[in-house]
């Protein structure tokens, strides 16, 4: 009897080992904590693909930049050094200069126009996703909404473009830099993980980020004011090495694509509905500045040159990207 039980136990161990050996493991690098909405988004994706594949697909998440910094992600995933990851859209500008079209200030009139432009299969998505794949070897699985841009600072709160004049401003991409320059500020590109220390040490006067970043990174501990400019959208992309993806079975490819579509929609709904909740939570920790219509018009007027600069620098490709964004 004991021998039979031992044989059954060994058989079970071998079966589990065999399943593990045959499973496809997708390692994912993420800059933010697992508790952040982007981390939860990947975990939702993990649950779907592991369940629907019967364990044939496995996902390992490495949050908080354990493996790669944000700027390293496109190369790491494109080269196959790691299977998948999330990176800020602006990190692809070296390979695809027009990808930051979504970060042009006030390009989208409202939430509906932004949703239409960023939806899978839209003119803008089709154009940019194809370019990322061609230039980097990374396949875009889905776009990850991070929220809308806001400004952080100490001292007098920022209300008008003139309040940025002469200030050193943390930005996270070229369009953010151009936006700051249009208002008289001096931009410096800095990864999200370096923000807290930079604000604490007063290395910069002002910072651009999203409301979720203020909460998850506890930036309210080092900044007094948050200005809800909402001048452009902050987008990340979830990417996978294309050779790895093509090496999967057709069944598992379809499972991944279905899961990607679902978690993209769920995240965008959650992020945009949750912004107001986060802002309300932060009101007890810092001053929240909401722009009046007149103040917002002043911001639009001051930054109107950015779209022209984008088209001038990128030529016909820039004009095509702007047109695709405006006509989803």
Model description:
- With 328 residues, this protein is of the alpha/beta class.
- The protein has one domain: D-Maltodextrin-Binding Protein, domain 2, CATH 3.40.190.170.
- The protein is 48% helix and 19% strand.
- The protein contains twelve helices and ten strands.
- The chain has helices at residues 2-22, 37-52, 73-79, 111-118, 123-136, 174-182, 195-200, 211-216, 242-246, 250-282, 293-302, 305-326, and strands at 24-29, 57-62, 84-88, 138-153, 168-171, 186-189, 206-210, 225-228, 233-241, 287-290.
- Strands 1, 2, 3, 4, 5, 6, 7, 8, 9 and 10 form a ten-stranded mixed sheet that branches.
- Helix 2 (37-52) packs antiparallel against helix 10 and helix 5 crosses helix 12 (305-326).
- The protein is globular and about 60 Å long.
Question: Mean pLDDT, rounded to whole units?
Answer: 92
- Give a quick account of the main beta sheet: strands, pairing sense, barrel closure: 10 strands, mixed
β-strand percent reads 15-25%
- Tell me the name of the CATH class: Alpha Beta
Helical segment count: 12
Q: Termini distance?
A: 69 Å
The CATH architecture: 3-Layer(aba) Sandwich
Number of strands: 10
Low-confidence stretches: 1-20
SSE order, one letter for each helix or strand: HEHEHEHHEEHEHEHEEHHEHH
Task: Output the radius of gyration.
Answer: 22 Å
Helix content: 40-55%
Helix and strand composition category: alpha/beta
Number of domains: 1
Described by the principal axes of the CA atoms, the overall outline is: globular
The CATH topology name reads: D-Maltodextrin-Binding Protein, domain 2
Q: Which superfamily, in CATH terms, is the homologous superfamily?
A: Bacterial extracellular solute-binding protein, family 7
